[in-house]
Amino acid sequence: YEAPWRDPWEPFFVAPARGVPPFDERFLQYGFNRISQACELHVAGFRFAVLDGAFVTHRGFKEPGGFHRGREAELGLNRRLFRAFREELRRRYPGSDRRC
């Protein structure tokens, strides 16, 4: 079934190596890295579908106090970068009525 876009959204997804907008490498470390690519896919007109019988596992847990010291600074920088990134998407996809 199709999974509609919701903001904010950080899905794990499977995509072909070609024909998909590349990951924006300006987003480093913590925050907005997966969401920026999913956002661009959405604005570019891609749709997300849930795979039947497939799953992904994530190793490790996030625990209070378990993040590195620079996490908040990284998150703040990536948050500001994401705001500019969304404006770039409007220029990159002028015919799209999708936003994120």
TrEMBL record:
Stretches assigned to coiled coil: none
Pfam families in alphabetical order: Glyco_transf_49 (PF13896)
Cofactor requirement: Mn(2+)
Lineage: superkingdom: Eukaryota
InterPro entries from the UniProt entry: B4GAT1
Topology within the bilayer: Single-pass type II membrane protein
GO biological process: protein O-linked glycosylation via mannose
Chemical reaction(s) catalysed: 3-O-[beta-D-Xyl-(1->4)-Rib-ol-P-Rib-ol-P-3-beta-D-GalNAc-(1->3)-beta-D-GlcNAc-(1->4)-(O-6-P-alpha-D-Man)]-Thr-[protein] + UDP-alpha-D-glucuronate = 3-O-[beta-D-GlcA-(1->3)-beta-D-Xyl-(1->4)-Rib-ol-P-Rib-ol-P-3-beta-D-GalNAc-(1->3)-beta-D-GlcNAc-(1->4)-(O-6-P-alpha-D-Man)]-Thr-[protein] + UDP + H(+)
UniProt keywords, alphabetically: Glycoprotein, Glycosyltransferase, Golgi apparatus, Manganese, Membrane, Metal-binding, Signal-anchor, Transferase, Transmembrane, Transmembrane helix
Pathway assigned in UniProt: Protein modification; protein glycosylation
Keyword Transferase among record annotations: yes
Residues in the signal sequence: none
GO cellular component annotations of the record: Golgi membrane
GO molecular function: glucuronosyltransferase activity; metal ion binding
Family statement: Belongs to the glycosyltransferase 49 family.
Official protein name in the record: Beta-1,4-glucuronyltransferase 1
Organism: Ploceus nigricollis
